[in-house]
Amino acid sequence: AFTPRVFSGIKPSGGLTLGNYLGAIKRFVGMQGGEFETIYCVVDMHAITVWQSPEDLRHATREVAAGYLAAGIDPDKSILFNQSRVSAHAELGWLFNCVARVGWMNRMTQFKDKAGKNAENVSLGLYAYPSLMAADILLYHATHVPVGEDQKQHVELTRDIANKFNHDYKVDFFPETVPVIEGPAMRVMNLRDGTKKMSKSGESDMERINMTDDADTISKKFKKSRTDPDVLPETMDGLSERPEARNLVNIYAALADTTGEAVLSEFGGEGWGKFKPALADLAVDKLAPISTEMKRLMADPAEIDRIMAKGAEKANEIAQPILAKTFDIMGF
Ligand code: ADP
Ligand code: NA
């Protein structure tokens, strides 16, 4: 039996969004100090699958660390570290490149979306990304991976790699990791059309809420967010054809730690003139303190680096023996 252990990560490929907060970080905080050992990573080696200038990478890496800390990841309760500081990730990633099949990679929808028509000219790393992600997870024998819906396919691929490795080498060494995708924020959409995922690299700043936005900006963005003219329905079924409205109700529910149904039992029958200011106030209430704390932390990068270096030592203590055993199993 494997120790109940959570691993998850965030790429420092731009500023953190409300999607990262509600779909990932807030849930990571909720899993701390309970039945799981929790390991959270700034996956900097994933960020460079698309071009990052060295200054941007350095800044974004510290910003993701600050986001974790400001939102409540406690380095005494969780292992928090940068991926590149634990070289076993790259080593196991290579071993898994030799386990995973090209056909499996060809099925990854995120690669198809990101590469688009340019598939011949993207980095080889972007293509192999899910294999490194499997290494991130399995290097700790993680049993559970909290992620947004967009990462479901990659966690399933992680299971395929673990199963093939166990089968090929006739061992029961890597666990079948379970993706944990739940709650109203598993897929936060942008504020423009409600049909595209809110993303760090989204087109316009008005379409996303950044974790570093100040109170006025958060409030303004929600008040200007696009909606239809109808009043809110009494149940979530009434939102099936109304993606912008559904997105805002789900965001409200996630911020308030409740369900969409509960939000509609309060706001059903009301118009946007009542709901949007309430959402803006709630969001400011929950997010502005985190944004303020992130800025305080970012003003002292040496302190962030010190915390992350300590986390890397702890991560290495788990990772090194698992990598060594993997090499041994494979005949190195
Ligand atoms: P991004 O997609 O913003 O570049 P990452 O790929 O680093 O972010 O993902 C970090 C975590 O945040 C993952 O668990 C991912 O599923 C989650 N996540 C990212 N965007 C969203 C979103 N819009 N809604 C819910 N979860 C999200
Ligand atoms: Na993502």
Automatic annotation (TrEMBL):
Recorded catalytic reaction(s): these are: tRNA(Trp) + L-tryptophan + ATP = L-tryptophyl-tRNA(Trp) + AMP + diphosphate + H(+)
In terms of domain of life, where is this protein from?
Bacteria
> EC number(s) per UniProt?
6.1.1.2
Residues binding ATP:
K11, P12, S13, G19, N20, G148, E149, D150, V188, K197, M198, S199, K200, S201
As annotated in the record, motif 'HIGH' region runs over 12-20
Major location category of this protein: cytoplasm
Where L-tryptophan is bound, by residue? D136
Q: Which UniProt keywords apply?
A: Aminoacyl-tRNA synthetase, ATP-binding, Cytoplasm, Ligase, Nucleotide-binding, Protein biosynthesis
Q: Which biological process terms from the Gene Ontology are attached to this UniProt entry?
A: tryptophanyl-tRNA aminoacylation
- One Pfam family name is tRNA-synt_1b
For this chain the motif 'KMSKS' region maps to 197-201
Q: Which SUPFAM superfamilies match?
A: Nucleotidylyl transferase (SSF52374)
Where does it localize? Cytoplasm
Q: Which GO terms describe its molecular function?
A: ATP binding; tryptophan-tRNA ligase activity
A single GO cellular-component term from the record reads: cytosol
Protein family (similarity comment): Belongs to the class-I aminoacyl-tRNA synthetase family.
Function description: Catalyzes the attachment of tryptophan to tRNA(Trp).
Subunit-level organization:
Homodimer.
Q: Identify the HAMAP family for this entry.
A: Trp_tRNA_synth_B
Recorded protein name is Tryptophan--tRNA ligase
| Native source organism of the sequence | Celeribacter neptunius
**Which gene carries the instructions for this protein?**
trpS
